[in-house]
Structures are given as structure tokens and as C-alpha cells.
Design brief:
Urease, subunit C, domain 1
Length: 423
């Protein structure tokens, strides 16, 4: 196994609080003291680069099995490596759904075969994602589940969810919820834009009433609840209040909800259709503030690939979702750090320790002895988003043509280089 010395980069390690120029050495797949390297090592000149623990994206849809045209485990892992993301929380809404130990083992085997990223399976809370009866949660946990979720939809039945949360708490795992009232029948945020496009809207209450219920159940069951892709400022306020009370409530924000509002939707362009929808500037600003102050401790893409044919359908009929693995670090860096003044160490924490805590993974670190998952990020590199060059099989990004600053340039998985930028 190759030895590496990553020399002279700005080392950002939230786990230790380290933020300073220095070297990171890798041997045998783990981080070692640079002075302890005995055999020859490949030297990487990291001057001007940020050296951080490999990013975790805890909200990713790999479409295999069932829709390989849109994404496979291998293509999604390749996109992750190119995006500086080392660990993927894998959502269960495949066909068949990820709701049995066999499916979890198959997923892990596919990830192992791809060899480009670490997978953290997040199988269904209920059988078939149907919301009626619980999946075999203890067996799923044994097979490698890192959390449970019916993502794509919430669990509408409060009794079923309560029972699931009790069981998840006993297993020491969190429940992740796509908090959206299943009765909501709209296509974008209910407001000026939905009226202009003459499309049914989804009010913010469709989200925050479910968030309110989830928090109540977290208090009742002691289960850790994680609100996925928070979109409404009222949800942010509820999460903030719950955390102040010491409840086990966390939330995540996606790059698109931090970057865009419904006013940015150019006509009925389905690359801007996702669930939950883009909301207003006030919601976007509340999300940015919550990520900065730690109320929202996780950044996650909700990478949701769809074929061009599926997204070519009319707005009301096209599937929800946008891809995000290859733009995630740059978009969030630009908004939060470059323009927003967030400390780089805090931004890195939202991509590492934040999601690791929800998934019960060890906090990623660059201290000697840690698994050498490392991302090198060039904070000065400017580039234009061209989906046609992505490793993802899908092209449904709302950021096409954007000029971004900040590029992942090298990714290491357990000491193995899984991506290096060309040129
Ligand atoms: Zn979702």
C-alpha cells in the first residue's frame, strides 16, 4: 500500500481544532506522524490547498437496483470521489426498496466492488416504504444499517412511527425523516411563482407540522430524529427550540436550498423541481444562519439522479430531485465561507463530524491513527459547471453554467487515491 506525504497544505481538522499549515502523512491506510514514515512516500504538493478529513454526504440516492439508467452504485461513488466525498448515506427508495438484510448486504457488496467510497446504508423504517408495518429493524442493524428512513416520503401513521422510533432508540440508531405532509399535492413552494406558473403549491406548513410531530415523538421515545433537507424557516425555529431543550434533534440543509429560492426558477424548468421545494429568500437566509450557528449541523446533497427523459416531462409530471455530489463542496463553500464569513473549520465540521454523529460513525479526523480518508480542496480554483462532464449518469443540476469557486482536487479513501483532478 502506497505511502503519501501531503505537504504544506492548510490542515483543517475540526475533531482536534487544528487549523494551520502543515503536513499530513499516510501509511498503511492510516494517518501517521510525518516523522514516523520509514519507507519512501509519494509527495503531494498541497501549497494553497485545504487538507480536510474526507467529506460525508449522508443523503444520497443511488438508483441501483431499479433505475441504473439514472445512476448505479459505481457511477454514484465515482461522482462522490470527484466531489471530495468519501462516505455516502444511501437512501432506500430503490426498486426493490432497501428494506431487507439481503438488500443491505447486496448494496454493501456493490460498494465494495466499486471501491471508490464508503457506504452507510440507511434502509427503510417500514416494509416496502409503505408506512404500514415496521421493517425488521434489528436484522437491518445487524446487516449494517446506520440509520432508518422512508426517505422520499414520511411515515404518515404516527403510531407506526412511534413504534419505529422506540425500536431504533433501543438499537442506538437515528430515524431520518423526509418531513412533508403526504396530503400536500403541489409542485413548488406555494407563493408568487406557483401562481405565475399556474401550478399547485406546497405551503411551508406541509413541512413544519410534520417537524413538530417528529420532535414530539423524539421527546416521547428518546429516539434521535434527524430532519432531512430542511426548507422552511419555521422548521428551523422548531429545531432550534428542540435543541435548546436538549432533545436529540438534528437537521440537514442541502446546497440547493442554501443557494436558490423559488424566484430563481426559470419558467417551468424541471431541473429546479425537488421535494421539498425551493422556498423564499427569508427561508434561504434562515437556513444559512442555522448552518452557521450550528442549529443545522449537517450539510447533505439529497443527490437525486434522474434520466433526461424523465426530467423532460412537464413540470407537474417530472420526478422530484437534483444531483449534487460534484457541486456540493463548491456551492456550500461559496455561500457559507467565501461570501458568508463562516469559519472554514465549521464548514468542514458540517461535512464531517456533523453527519458522522447522526450516523453513529466515528468523528473523521486527521490525527495520527485515524483512517486516512482525506479530501484536498482548492479554495481558489474557479470553474464552470458543465453537467456533461460529470461522472454521475444524470445531468439534472440547477447549477448548469454557474461559475463556482473551490474545487475538490484529490480524494483518498483509507489511504488509497480514488480521485485526482486532471491538469
Ligand atoms: Zn427526501
Amino acid at each position: 500500500m502506497e505511502n503519501w506525504i501531503i505537504r504544506g497544505g492548510r490542515v483543517l481538522d475540526p475533531a482536534t481544532g487544528r487549523d494551520g499549515v502543515g503536513d499530513v502523512a499516510i501509511s498503511g491506510g492510516v494517518v501517521v506522524e510525518p516523522g514516523a514514515l520509514r519507507e519512501p512516500a509519494t509527495v503531494v504538493d498541497a501549497a494553497g490547498l485545504w487538507v480536510m478529513p474526507g467529506a460525508i454526504d449522508m443523503h444520497v440516492h443511488l438508483r441501483e437496483p431499479g433505475n441504473d439508467e439514472a445512476e448505479t452504485v459505481a457511477s454514484g461513488c465515482q461522482a462522490a470521489a470527484q466531489g471530495g466525498i468519501v462516505t455516502l448515506g444511501v437512501m432506500p427508495n430503490t426498486r426493490p426498496p432497501l428494506d431487507s438484510p439481503d438488500e443491505v448486504r447486496r448494496l454493501l457488496a456493490r460498494g465494495e466492488a466499486a471501491g471508490l467510497a464508503r457506504l452507510a446504508p440507511c434502509p427503510c423504517l417500514t416494509r416496502g416504504r409503505a408506512g404500514r408495518e415496521l421493517a425488521d429493524l434489528p436484522a437491518l442493524a445487524c446487516a449494517g444499517a446506520r440509520a432508518f428512513t422512508d426517505d422520499g416520503s414520511t411515515v404518515p401513521d404516527e403510531g407506526v412511527l412511534r413504534e419505529g422510533m422506540r425500536m431504533a432508540a433501543a438499537l442506538g440508531l437515528a430515524v431520518l425523516d423526509h418531513a412533508l405532509d403526504p396530503a400536500a399535492r403541489g409542485y413548488l413552494h406555494e407563493g408568487v411563482k406557483s401562481a405565475a406558473l399556474r401550478l399547485a403549491g406546497i405551503p411551508s406548513s406541509a413541512e413544519f407540522l410534520i417537524v413538530e410531530r417528529d420532535i414530539r415523538l423524539a421527546a416521547e421515545t428518546g429516539c434521535a430524529i434527524h430532519i432531512q433537507h430542511v426548507s422552511a424557516r419555521e422548521s428551523v425555529a422548531l429545531i432550534r427550540a428542540a435543541r435548546a431543550q436538549g432533545l436529540r434533534v438534528t437537521g440537514e440543509a442541502s446546497p440547493h436550498h442554501l443557494a436558490l429560492t423559488d424566484a430563481d426558477i426559470p419558467g417551468a424548468d424541471t431541473r429546479f423541481k425537488m421535494s421539498p421545494p425551493l422556498r423564499t429568500a427569508r427561508d434561504r437566509d434562515a437556513l444559512r444562519e442555522a448552518v452557521r450557528d450550528g442549529t443545522i449541523s449537517v450539510l447533505a446533497t439529497d443527490h437525486a439522479p434522474h434520466s433526461a427523459a424523465a426530467k423532460a416531462r412537464p413540470f407537474a409530471e417530472a420526478p422530484n430531485g437534483v444531483i449534487g455530489l460534484e457541486t456540493a463542496l463548491a456551492v456550500t463553500y461559496g455561500i457559507l465561507v467565501q461570501k458568508g464569513g463562516m469559519a472554514p473549520l465549521d464548514w468542514v465540521r458540517r461535512w464531517t463530524g456533523g453527519p458522522a454523529a447522526v450516523l453513529g460513525l466515528g468523528e473523521p479526523s486527521l490525527r495520527p491513527g485515524s483512517v486516512a480518508d482525506v479530501t484536498l480542496f482548492d479554495p481558489a480554483r474557479r470553474w464552470t459547471v458543465q453537467a456533461s462532464r460529470f461522472a454521475s449518469r444524470s445531468r439534472n443540476t440547477p447549477f448548469e453554467g454557474w461559475l463556482l469557486t473551490g474545487l475538490p482536487v484529490r480524494t483518498f479513501l483509507a489511504g488509497r487515491e480514488v480521485f485526482a483532478v486532471a491538469g
